[in-house]
Amino acid sequence: MIVFIDESGFSERPTVARTWAQRGRTPIIQYHFKWHQLAAIAGLTFWNFYFRLFPGTINSERVIEFLKALRAQIKQPLLVIWDRSQTHRSRLVKHFLESLNGALQLEFLPGYAPELNPVEAIWAHVKPHEMANFLAENFVHLNQFARNRLKSMQRRPRLIAAFWKQADRCSVSNGEALAPRTARRRRWRKQRSVERPRTRASELGPP
């Protein structure tokens, strides 16, 4: 099964977006300048996406933890496609992949075209739309709200389909793709025919 993977992060500092207000009264969001970072990693298949949240940043150990949980959830050989970040190419990740005896294969995206990864569309949607103007009371509040919004997105098949369409448009506009467009669609149709039906989505691992 093909899985695109990417990492991002959320902050206690709110993502400011346009909103409604009384005429002549500009909305004001007040927040402190000492904010904590919540890291996120997500894997996108044709029917669903899976995620995990971590305090701080994503390192090799957390990438391996996510890959283990992903294999336990999907229970099929995986082809993981992601960027060439140092974390993805670390010695720990290489040793973990070697221990799987080919059950998990890797492909890397071009370094100059991260928008070819459809997971980028998840982050582009959740931050300015699902979490726009959200002011967390504390780190626990941020963690719970981000988890709830991502789970809500998992239950919207049209939204998941839109992530793929966005990546397809980017590949065509850039003149670069992983394969010719017709061949790519043919491969995706074949992939859809063997992938399990979409089930109720949840965060990988314990809540």
Beta-strand portion reads 15-25%
Note the run of SSEs as H and E: EEEHEHEHHHH
CATH topology: Nucleotidyltransferase, domain 5
Number-wise, the strands total 5
Terminal CA distance reads: 25 Å
Overall pLDDT score? 83
Name the shape in a single word.
globular
Strand order of the largest sheet: 3-2-1-4-5
Number of helices: 6
Q: How much is the radius of gyration in Å? A: 18 Å
- In the predicted model, the low-confidence regions spanning at least 5 consecutive residues are 175-186, 190-201
Helicity range = 40-55%
CATH architecture: 2-Layer Sandwich
For this structure, what is the CATH class? Alpha Beta
CATH superfamily: Ribonuclease H-like superfamily/Ribonuclease H
Give a topology summary:
Blueprint (H helix, E strand, L loop, with lengths): L1 E10 L25 E8 L4 E7 L4 H15 L3 E5 L8 H9 L4 E5 L10 H12 L8 H16 L2 H18 L6 H14 L13
Parallel strand pairs: 1-4, 4-5
Antiparallel strand pairs: 1-2, 2-3
Describe this structure in words.
By secondary structure, the chain is of the alpha/beta class. The chain has a single domain (2-13, 31-194), classed as Nucleotidyltransferase, domain 5 (2-Layer Sandwich). The chain is built from six helices and five strands; from the N terminus they run βββαβαβαααα. It has a five-stranded mixed β-sheet with strand order 3-2-1-4-5, sandwiched between helices. Helix 3 packs across helix 5 (157-174). The chain is globular. Residues 175-186 and 190-201 have low confidence and may be disordered.
